[in-house]
Design goal:
Elements (H helix, E strand, L loop, with lengths): L18 H33 L9 E6 L2 E5 L1 H13 L6 H23 L1 H11 L6
Antiparallel strand pairs: 1-2
Helix pairs in contact: 1-2, 1-3
């Protein structure tokens, strides 16, 4: 899977750190990439749901939660929510709202986890000090 966000591994001083900090940084960076992709795909589907009436093709969905365990997503509930989204295309809906909120939360928490590592915090601070980053 292609990463849409990247960092320079070879040139940057950021990557000169102990193995534990490097692992925390790379894990956090990968998590940020996943949420970045989730934001794009989820929001795309929320917009698509306003243009195409998916309520007509909704079905029960079996989510396997363990060995011999599952949870069924109810077709009727799915259909009602999709119909509501489709019938009010000009209004914000729970799907797009939660996609944005969960993406922002996931990215923020990955950053918090990375910055919780003292060495990463110092390296990032050194790399942006004196620069107009915003």
């Amino acid at each position: 899977m292609k990463r849409w966000l990247s960092y320079e591994k070879k040139e940057g001083r950021l990557m000169i750190m102990n193995q534990n900090s490097k692992k925390v940084f790379e894990d956090s960076f990968e998590t940020i990439n996943i949420y970045f992709r989730y934001l794009h795909l989820g929001y795309f589907y929320s917009v698509l749901s306003k243009r195409i009436n998916f309520a007509r093709i909704s079905t029960n969905i079996n989510v396997i939660t363990g060995e011999d365990q599952s949870y069924i997503l109810n077709c009727q509930l799915i259909s009602e929510m999709l119909e509501d989204i489709y019938s009010k295309p000009g209004q914000q809906n729970i799907f797009s709202y939660l996609t944005i909120i969960n993406s922002a939360r996931g990215i923020t928490m990955a950053l918090v986890e990375a910055l919780g590592d003292g060495e990463i915090h110092v390296k990032i601070d050194e790399s942006v000090r004196g620069k107009d980053v915003f």
